[in-house]
Amino acid sequence: MSAYNLPLCFRARPPLNAEPFEEACRLILKRHTVLADAILEEDGVPYRSAAAAMAPFLYREDASGISDEELLSVLRGKAKQPFALERGPLLRVHLLERSREETIVLLVVHHIAFDIGSMLPFLRELMEAYRALSRGERPALEAAAASYADFVAWNEA
Questions:
Q1: Which CATH architecture is the domain 5-139 placed in?
Q2: Count of H helices and E strands in the chain?
């Protein structure tokens, strides 16, 4: 079911350099491990599993031959594609290369690991890491204030 998908889409002009962007995504997945996890179930109780999450998360495709009207339909379809929680990860990144001047980026995150308030800090970290990697530098991201486990413990209290 796609009701819990949180999509964020933007145009990158000039286009993104895919290699540093993919590396930035990998760094963010390591930093926010819940996004890289799978969600398994035992006796009706869901739990996180890092070992189960092996599915790819980043997809690149040539979208140069797609009209703007068709592009919107393609993006909607990708945004509504359900997650296979048991396979993970809980993040999908689609890079649609439109031309030498433009890349369309679609990030889709499952709500089980993410809320809309997380979107701006996530995007800020991702783009900060991408900019550093594009310059050949190692990203210097601030320490996270809390982890997903901290958030769960806070909610259970």
A1: 2-Layer Sandwich (3.30)
A2: 4, 6
Beta-sheet strand order (sheet of 58-62) = 5-12, 102-110, 91-99, 58-62
Residue 66 in 3-state DSSP?
Answer: coil
Give domain limits for the chain.
5-139
Q: At what angle do helices 18-31 and 119-134 cross, to 10 degrees?
A: 130
DSSP assignment of 135-147 equals: TTPPP-PPPPS--
Three-class DSSP labels, 29-60: HHHCHHHHCEEEEECCEEEEECCCCCCCCEEE
Is residue 103 within 8 Å of residue 96, measured between CB atoms? yes
Its pTM stands at: 0.85
In degrees to the nearest 10, what's the CA dihedral of 53, 54, 57, 62?
-160
**Per-residue pLDDT band at 92 (split at 50, 70, 90):** very high
What are the structure tokens assigned to 71, written together? 């592009």
14 φ, ψ (degrees, to nearest 5):
-65, 165
